[in-house]
Amino acid sequence: MRLEAITWERLGDLLAERLLDLKQDDGSHWPRIAFDGAPAAHPGDLAERVAEALRLRGRPALVVATEGFLRPASLRFEHGHRDVEAYYDGWFDTGALWREVFGPLDPGGDGRVLPDLWDPVADRATRSPHVQLPPGALLLLHGPLLLRHWFPFDFTVHIRLSPSALRRRTPESEHWRLPAYERYESEAAPGDTADVLVRADDPRHPAWNG
């Protein structure tokens, strides 16, 4: 696959332009966009950049992080603090994401989204208020391992790091998670299935397949 060099600023603008023209097939009023990538790839930074570009074009967007939907520590660490299987299959509360984020944006939904549910640092509920999205507003969800849950995304962006870059840019204390990302690449092939692939081995010089 041929990738072209681009700046982050230009990438944010071009993605925003593409999302403005996004057509939905299911009749819902709120496009749902994935920014998928390991934490070291900083998918949230690109999501925020695109959200700002959309706002400048008069289109509201809500950025939501899957980190705000982690399960309580008692469940995440039931089999230890470095259990790869638990991280891959059990750290993120996908049921809550379906219920609180995707469900309200389904056809016939009311557009009231919960932006986060759980504070992983304090290990307690955030008690954040719901956010009412007006028709046409976009949901920009970012986090790792996103493209394996059958979430109803209308557009997907995968930010890829090579294995060596991923190891280099992941804190050593989190290296135990690397096998989960390797498994994800093997099972979900996010770089092949995403609408847009961004390579970010050099954080200053991304490239994409746009």
UniProtKB/TrEMBL annotation:
Name by which UniProt lists this protein: Uridine kinase
InterPro entries named among the record's database cross-references: P-loop_NTPase
SUPFAM superfamilies cross-referenced by the UniProt entry: P-loop containing nucleoside triphosphate hydrolases
GO MF annotation: an example: kinase activity
Organism: Streptomyces xiangluensis
Keywords in alphabetical order: Kinase, Transferase
Statement: the UniProt record of this protein carries the keyword Kinase: yes
KW Transferase (keyword) present: yes
Domain of life: Bacteria
